[in-house]
Amino acid sequence: MNPPVLNVRDLKTYFHPFAGVVKAVDGVDFSIEPGEILGVVGESGCGKSVLGFSIMGLIDPPGRIEQGTITFNDLNLLEMKEQDLRKIRGKDLAMVFQDPMTSLNPLYTIQNQMEESMKRHSGLNATQRKARCIELLDEVGISQPESRLKNYPHQFSGGMRQRVIIAIALASHPRLIIADEPTTALDVTIQAQILQVMKRLVRDHQTALMLITHDLAVISQMADHIMVMYCGRIVEKATNQVIINQAQHPYTLGLLNSIPKLTVKQSRLPQISGMVPDIRDLPAGCAFAPRCSYAQDLCRTTRPEPTALSPGHEIACHFPVER
Amino acid sequence: MPPLLEIKQLEQRFDVSPGFWDRLHIDKGRVRYDKHIVHAVNGINLHINRGEVFGLVGESGCGKSTVAKTIVKIHEPSGGRILIDGEDITAYDARKMLPIRKKMQMIFQDPYASLNPRMRIRDIITEPMTANEIKPTKNELDARAMGLLNQVGLGDEHVDRYPHQFSGGQRQRIGIARALSIEPELVIADEPVSALDVSIQAQILNLLMDLKDAYGFSCLFIGHDLSVVRHISDRIGVMYLGFLVETGTSNELFNHPKHPYTRALLASAPTIGEVPHTEPIELKSEVPPALDLPTGCCFQSRCPFVYDACYSRRPELQDTGEGHQVACHLIDQ
Q1: Are residues A254 and A132 in the same domain?
Q2: Predicted ipTM of the assembly
């Protein structure tokens, strides 16, 4: 078995606003192997984006990483100095953001922005950099790459910009790409194109991909492993097939069932009642207990710890749903 | 009996021309003064029967929201006719529209922008009644506000709060209560669930369907998520670049999609463990701008089956049986 690219142990990222503590990420364990696509899924506010930012070292006050280790390529990211982190960020560790309209600088050409990380991290000279830019744009499926290098972001459509951003992320052959909702702002036909490009590139370059999204359907088509988060914790973690077909956590099941089906017409959707609780004031036991139809007294008093149901299938629930 | 809503050959164009000097330019020795027109909606026919939910799907920029806004006459239509209950409202001015607007209400996409942050929930919900000069007493208004809140799953204690005290899903419930306060015959829902999380989305969809059964309104439901639109709609229309390219009952359309665009949409919609009905069609490029419409079919630039007729003639909607209509030259072959 390959050693993992990224190994996260007991990570806790808390935010300290004026009142209370927001436990955005509260004890998360996982690892990613080279070439693996890990899907992180959950609803807004579950801490999935903060998890991505924590790995990149982009947590600003009032946020703080309280505890845990993040091992990337045998380096402990949490103990590194900012200047050392900069040597890794954009080189071995790259990020793709959600909004293609705001993550490019409108005042610089595409070439300028693509070369930025190359200048810092690679020893390429100007002609080599330009050649690499053209190669990258071609790889992500932008036609006439040479003429488009001189264009500004406003001359590109949303889908094209996201392709450029993926090209920038790929520029120096990263070991891990963290993609935070990369296709949420795009139309379905464009989303399908972008996802296909990402999947192909990840496979070709043996890059690991951490795909963060709220869309279980997208995750189910992309990921090898899926991690379901709720209120800062992982509630279920398994391979794609297991999550889709044999999920046992009531929250995962609820999420799966509340998505309307394309092939079958249902009269009403099975719904998860209630709302996500205020993260500053979580219930004592399991955070999902107030919305869970299987909850019993134990769930309201004791927080379930992640346990392995079968090899590779971890679940944090006192009463897994038998199917 | 005429259908509740009927639109005939509806057209909507927007003049987006820049300033005088930018429009003026010299082309082959001649001075030209160009107009830039966005063809948002290009001759759409559709009708909604009583008690029916009609879903309108398409990608961003295809004109689906413009259709909705033109129906309630937020925009004046550039061409075509709009009939409510058989009454032609195309030329009605704001005053004449007042009694018509009692029959239709909108639910908007963004629950954060569609509620006035300085009004209490009570006033938000009852505003349509006061605006439409339905003049109940203060007590009646209060009772009505409470009743509506309960119906959409909120409690009496919420009536004096402000919008910022609610979550997105709760705000959307308030938006629905406001729309239903004057018991409209037609509810126009413009992407009402696309800003919500999946678990909340399911709650709101169920609520809409329950209320539809209780109030018996008809609905124009606009969305970009195919599975959501299929779930709630009786009939569906697929729009592309301001044209209606295919329409039919939701079962017929999803089980036997005929237009290449519909098939591509279905193929690219991500699903969980479901096998798509049709062979996957992959679209290469992106939606062209609606500034200069091509002669011939609107889908020619992305269609994998394009042939010479598609460049010369614009396909009309044709009946293929069972209320299924398709605008594509391939149907003739």
Answers
A1: no
A2: 0.82
